[in-house]
Design goal:
The protein is mainly alpha-helical. The protein contains 17 helices and 4 strands. β1 and β2 form a beta hairpin. The longest helix has 32 residues. The radius of gyration is 21 Å and the shape is globular.
Length: 433
């Protein structure tokens, strides 16, 4: 039986909490799949948004990470974690469902655009305001010695079941669209999100609550003092730099790929679903190896390996055109595969350099700064995309699609992130907590 600082990780209550947390992450993942990339693009195209605007809206997820910053002002004052988390998270998930009803509104296109953006922003606020709190709460019932492997198993569960979900929703939307009833497909997807929201809620209620006495709340440090401590930690500074490089690198391109698959590459929703399945399978197959690798060696080494895969993915995307449309499959497999090492380790690496009691604040600051930089990169990329398209898909006198140019920029930025991680972060000693 393993115990650490009063934790009994082998207890029945802890085991139930871990399972509930893993299941909650799965249902949350289902919802996220239905409000990103091709699914999101389908909804936004239906209300008349341009490709450039969709590029920006699709990466509002990056800007929305700024909402995590607000959690640092409340995290030390939360007495009932479950109650606080359920309120904001559930409202956010339900607003994602509302996004699918925007095409039905009796407004002109520009007003629907405003409502859609509003739904996205408020929904992400509800989610990101508590995302680090949920992560820290759920992982408090996981032993630090196998946190990487637990994260891998959790990802595998989400990915494999997510494949089934996207196949069903993708086929349903294609069926309704071919029947001239795309709105029916939107209703079907919205009902799916509602079911996932209910399951998410039940899972959160099954996790062991974390209640703090009010006397303990009164002893908390002022937020200014906490932030001053964090920014003095060199390892935390390095994590910030890496996060910025990574976010700018990926958000330069990914927001433009949803419409690229649908328009220039002319894939149907069911075809896009199959391609996404291949990517999910790759990530699922690599999750356990990456988790074991990070636990055995270091998280920074796992991040380097993952970013090498991301570099290869965007490099291949540079050569993806309507004539070589099959290359998007290779890109998708490599890009999704790299997240087997990126997603969990980029979160857990905060534990490597920052005391555990400051995890929520450190993660919120890291993700907020990275999110702002990623969003600014997406705006610049959207402007470049519109410019290249307005020139008849010509850039510097060369016939090229905007997504190819953006992918090349992503390659350069991620290579810079790899060099930084190898020469700087990989030389730092990591804590095990």
């Amino acid at each position: 039986m393993e115990a650490l600082q009063g934790h009994d990780f082998a207890s029945k209550e802890y085991r139930r909490s871990r399972r509930a947390y893993a299941a909650e992450c799965t249902f949350e993942y289902f919802v996220s799949l239905l409000v990103t990339e091709a699914f999101l693009s389908k909804v936004l195209l239906s209300i008349g948004m341009s490709d450039g605007l969709i590029q920006v809206v699709s990466t509002l997820i990056a800007l929305s990470q700024l909402f995590q910053f607000f959690s640092i002002f409340v995290v030390q004052r939360i007495t009932n974690t479950k109650r606080f988390v359920v309120l904001f998270h559930t409202v956010g998930q339900l607003l994602f469902m509302a996004l699918y009803f925007v095409p039905f509104l009796p407004f002109a296109g520009e007003y629907k655009t405003v409502v859609a953006i509003g739904c996205i922003l408020v929904a992400y606020f509800g989610n990101y305001f508590v995302t680090n709190i949920i992560y820290n709460w759920g992982n408090s019932y996981v032993s630090p010695s196998w946190r990487g492997l637990f994260g891998a198993k959790k990802e595998i569960l989400s990915l494999l079941t997510g494949i089934v979900m996207t196949v069903v929703i993708g086929y349903a939307m294609d069926y309704f669209e071919e029947a001239g009833n795309l709105e029916g497909g939107f209703i079907f997807a919205a009902i799916g999100i509602l079911i996932f929201c209910i399951c998410d809620f039940v899972c959160l209620m099954m996790i062991k609550n974390d209640i703090k006495p009010r006397e303990e709340i009164k002893k908390t440090e002022p937020i200014g003092q906490v932030m001053k401590k964090l920014f003095k930690i060199r390892g935390f500074q390095y994590v910030l730099i890496l996060t910025v490089l990574w976010n700018v690198g990926i958000y330069t391109t990914i927001g433009a790929l949803g419409t690229y698959r649908i328009t220039e590459l002319d894939f149907s929703m069911s075809e896009i679903t199959y391609i996404a399945m291949a990517g999910c399978l790759a990530r699922a197959l690599l999750s356990r190896p990456f988790g074991r690798f990070a636990d055995k060696y270091t998280r920074s080494k796992a991040l380097i390996l993952a970013m090498v895969m991301a570099t290869a993915a965007f490099a291949i995307n540079v050569f993806t055109t309507p004539d070589t449309r099959y290359l998007i499959i290779v890109y998708t497999i490599l890009y999704n595969g790299c997240f087997a090492g990126m997603s969990v380790n980029l979160l857990n690496i905060v534990y490597s350099y920052v005391p555990a009691e400051y995890f929520v604040q450190a993660s919120a600051i890291k993700n907020s700064i990275g999110g702002i930089c990623g969003f600014l990169a997406s705006i610049a990329a959207g402007t470049l995309l519109d410019y290249i398209q307005s020139q008849g898909n010509t850039f510097l006198g060369i016939h090229v699609y905007a997504q190819q140019v953006l992918s090349l920029i992503s390659v350069i930025l991620i290579v810079a992130a790899i060099v930084f991680t190898k020469l700087v972060m990989d030389k730092q000693k990591e804590m095990k907590q």
